[in-house]
Amino acid sequence: MQNIYAALLLHKAGKEVNEDNLKKVVVAAGCRADESQLKSLVASLKGVDIGKELENASLVASAPVSAPAEKKKEEKPKEEKKEAAAEGLSALFG
Description:
Helix content is 78%, strand content 0%.
């Protein structure tokens, strides 16, 4: 995870995201830099526009449209259960 944060920090600072720069940031943060992970991250970011990907990610994250609708669906069955329980109690003491 620290490698990804380092890549984001380098991108924000306008620096090139390469193995040497990533290693410097990770070590400066007090973490151990794993060479194979750094190579893998640099290879996976090759040709990726980080700024554009961040814009797309923030648009998706800022629009949780389905959450309120799901909550309303969950509340209705609970009310029905309470009514059924009340009917059962009235039959016992009725």
